[in-house]
Sirohydrochlorin cobaltochelatase (Anoxybacillus thermarum), 281 residues
Amino acid sequence: MWGVIHVKAILFVGHGSRDEEGNEQVRQFVQTILPQIDATFYVHTCFLEFGVPSVIDGIVHCVERGATEVIVIPIILLPAGHSKLHIPAAIDEAKERYPYVSFTYGRPLGIHDATFTILQDRLEEAEIVLDEHTAVILLGRGGSDPDANSDLYKIARLFWERNKQVIVEPAFMGVTNPSLDEAVVKCVKLGAKKIVVLPYFLFTGVLIKRLEKRVFEFQSIYPHISFVLTHYFGFHPSLQTIVLDRLHEALSDSVQMNCDTCQYRLHVAEHHHHHHHHHDH
């Protein structure tokens, strides 16, 4: 008697960008980790927005390839509305459509020891000397979820714990405060002679290109201070470590974030039924 073949699929979820270069970076990154994933898994990549396929289309694709188990891994920096609401909503839809398929949902990249290896390397690549005259602004996207915003503060604090001789300030590109401009003013008041902007962004896009222009403007406003924009956090080799750790957690059922009981998700789900937003990426 023939046995039933159970296909397991891993579906990586990128945020997605209006800038196709950013979407291609996600696809290329997934290609780099394929050799470290058991060849029996079917691996596919999808996007929350702007890129194709969408999350639900990505799940459909995996099921059409014969998957009876789909492990969904978000390649998203911090836990916020996307990972708490929009991906679980797509999984819920898929569960109704495919009751015979089991789903496992991993957690976002979050705070990991390798995070600080990447930040340190970005500074070294820019030949930054970390001393008492240097300020590092860790610049996040910014959002409406307090968890994600506070995680950036935690990363900034833990980074300072490893580099106590330097000023480290968190800031956000939009939605919430402190803004980049406010962080620059604070660093100037604290006596910084060099201000380094380190973008905590996973991929290039509209905001990174806007940021390049803004840092150039800062140099004109504060001619007595040196400004440096490092490479964004990005798809550094150590990011493979973080993503593979999140995958292994999901495969071993040790994921430490339960979105089904998350109070933020339950509250927002009552008030938001669709994913409509107008920010740039």
